[in-house]
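Weekly sync, protein design subgroup
Attendees: M.S., D.O., the rotation student, P.L. (late)

Item 1: inverse folding check
M.S. brought a backbone from last month's batch and wanted to see whether the design step gives back something sensible before we order anything. D.O. pointed out we never logged the input encoding, so this time it goes straight into the notes. Structure tokens as presented (491 positions):
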């Protein structure tokens, strides 16, 4: 058997089903890899060795079958896992063990996947670099001195470091796609409501979307098909069949895109993107044209307002969602020595438990929602959101998908964007419009700039997730997947 940690999820599932290897062997290989490299990568906040080996043993005993039976998966720490620590990378939830599984975790278990542990992230999924984790950053396997993206940097780094073949992320403004882009992996944000939010620790409820992360497009599609689908426990879950994303990825892999129209967003051109990112993007467009695709320039005039609208809507919803962390119901409680009022204990707990970025968002959101300012800020941002949705709907009259770089810059060095929050927010310039609209989008590696990965983003209409997988797989068929330098060599 070749190195099990280098195999794709599809190959692992087949090898286990064909009894060429066992689920326990596969889990052990990945747990050993985590032991060997995670002190340098820090992709994981918690490794569930016992739970993983027990789940793998159930697969080997034939108790669980399914398309991904025995394949390891890493889960972002913002997702509730029964009995397994879940902190959202915040001190305020340190030590919390949820009494239930998120719907998507139930589905992962039912499909026979083996959960290795919980991955690092920016606190409460707020950030683009994982530097806002209360437990220290994750290091990008391509260059350990650089960020792995965020908020789901742990999930993406676990893939790039061969610690897991599959991972789960959540995307509120880009937190699956941007980490995918800067680690040379694939990250897909499904249609909002296409994957259940039940059991996600809420950041911005009208935007939060869990989705798959993998090292190639077919694996992402396989994971997508396992976690997606209607869930009556989530009121915004869409009661429609899941698009055939696996079929679409396999079709795309044949390398034929004849008749497919790709829209290049005019307003994104020259928007502060690094030259290496722009040239990798244009080379990819040329490669897609060779496969038969047609390129059409599309104007989306309101996309330029997406970032400011997002930074009113997301913090507003966060300020409300994070009110539940009050020192009474979950996790941390500070100053409860009998001498203080309830309000004082809540205030001390929140002061000690939340990091600076989370506090910044709560203050911003509370302000934007307060009477007197609501119409000027939150109300206005909601109107902009409608205009952005109309830009997408107008685009679908002339093209099948929209394309752009995933993020304007490659992985940046630690500390280079933390002093100015706006510099950090710019990482999501190209990903946020999709979240405000609610459609699906995927980031797929498209080359290197100065030795670091560049991501290509494909955005599709709501519930047409299959379309983006087809184009992504076609691009992958010509540019190939990226192989990060071995950590052994960069150590
Ligand atoms: N980077 C964005 C933010 O900080 C997006 C985060 C996310 O998608 N969870 O809000």
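Designed sequence read out in the meeting:
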């Amino acid at each position: 058997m070749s190195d099990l940690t280098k195999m794709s999820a599809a190959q692992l599932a087949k090898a286990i089903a064909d009894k060429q290897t066992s689920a326990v062997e596969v889990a052990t290989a990945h747990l050993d890899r985590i032991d060997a490299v995670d002190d340098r990568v820090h992709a994981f906040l918690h490794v569930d060795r016992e739970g993983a080996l027990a789940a793998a043993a159930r697969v080997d005993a034939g108790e669980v079958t399914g398309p991904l039976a025995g394949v390891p998966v890493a889960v972002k720490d913002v997702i509730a896992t029964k009995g397994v620590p879940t902190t959202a990378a915040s001190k305020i939830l340190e030590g919390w063990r949820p009494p239930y599984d998120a719907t998507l975790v139930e589905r992962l278990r039912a499909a026979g996947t083996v959960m290795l542990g919980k991955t690092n992230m920016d606190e409460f999924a707020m950030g683009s670099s994982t530097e806002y984790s209360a437990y220290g950053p994750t290091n990008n396997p391509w260059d350990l001195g650089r960020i792995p993206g965020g908020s789901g940097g742990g999930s993406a780094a676990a893939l790039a470091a061969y610690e897991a073949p599959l991972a789960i992320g959540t995307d509120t403004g880009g937190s699956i796609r941007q980490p995918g882009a800067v680690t040379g992996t694939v990250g897909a944000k499904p249609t909002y409501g296409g994957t259940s939010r039940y059991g996600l620790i809420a950041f911005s409820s009208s935007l939060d979307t869990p989705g798959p992360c993998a090292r190639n497009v077919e694996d992402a599609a396989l994971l997508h098909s396992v976690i997606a689908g209607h869930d009556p426990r989530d009121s915004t879950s869409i009661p429609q069949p899941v698009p055939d994303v696996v079929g679409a990825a396999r079709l795309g892999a044949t390398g034929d895109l004849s008749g497919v129209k790709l829209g290049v967003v005019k307003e994104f051109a020259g928007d502060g993107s690094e030259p290496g990112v722009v040239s990798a993007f244009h080379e990819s467009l040329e490669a897609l044209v060779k496969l038969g695709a047609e390129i059409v320039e599309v104007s989306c005039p309101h996309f330029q307002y997406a970032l400011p609208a997002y930074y009113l809507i997301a913090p507003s919803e966060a300020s409300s969602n994070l009110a539940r962390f009050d020192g009474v119901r979950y996790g941390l409680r500070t100053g409860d020595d009998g001498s203080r009022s309830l309000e004082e204990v809540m205030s001390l707990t929140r002061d000690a438990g939340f990091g600076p970025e989370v506090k910044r968002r709560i203050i911003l959101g509370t302000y934007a929602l307060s009477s007197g300012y609501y119409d000027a800020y939150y109300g206005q941002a909601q109107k902009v959101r409608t205009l952005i949705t109309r830009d997408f709907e107008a685009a679908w009259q002339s093209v099948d998908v929209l394309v752009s770089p995933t993020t304007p810059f490659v992985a940046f060095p630690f500390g280079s964007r933390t002093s100015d929050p706006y510099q950090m927010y710019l990482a999501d310039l190209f990903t946020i419009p999709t979240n405000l609209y609610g459609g699906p989008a995927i980031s797929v590696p498209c080359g290197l700039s100065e030795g670091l990965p560049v991501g290509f983003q494909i955005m599709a209409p709501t519930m047409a997730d299959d379309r983006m997988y087809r184009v992504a797989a076609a691009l992958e068929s010509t540019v190939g997947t990226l192989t990060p330098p071995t950590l052994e060599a960069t150590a």
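Discussion: Residues 255 and 474 are 5 Å apart (CA to CA). DSSP finds 17 helices and eleven strands in the chain.
Action: P.L. to compare against the previous round before Friday.
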